[in-house]
Amino acid sequence: MNEILIVTGMSGAGRSTVSAALEDAGWSVIDNLPLELISRVSELASPGISEATGLAFIVGRSGGVDPEQLIRTIEDLRAQSFIAKLLFLDAPDDVLVSRFEGN
What we know:
Blueprint: E1 3-9, H1 15-24, E2 28-31, H2 35-45, E3 54-58, H3 67-79, E4 83-89, H4 93-102
Parallel strand pairs: 1-3, 1-4, 2-3
Helix pairs in contact: 2-3
């Protein structure tokens, strides 16, 4: 089976850092793809996903993520026999504020 990771979370909580770390670990990473397309893209990419790595989607950069759509997407992926996981990133408010002030 192939592993799919959906990464989302608070703006400033580290999605870019996680994206870079996953790429360094050999994962294929797709950034800012609408949730509605994740199942289809995963199906198309499936033959190229090796057993040692997986495919990650970084979502929520251009606005919020609909939680119901997120759940449907994960259910669709699991129905296609993917190992679908969700990583939600958060950080304390003071950390988020300091990151935005630094930009």
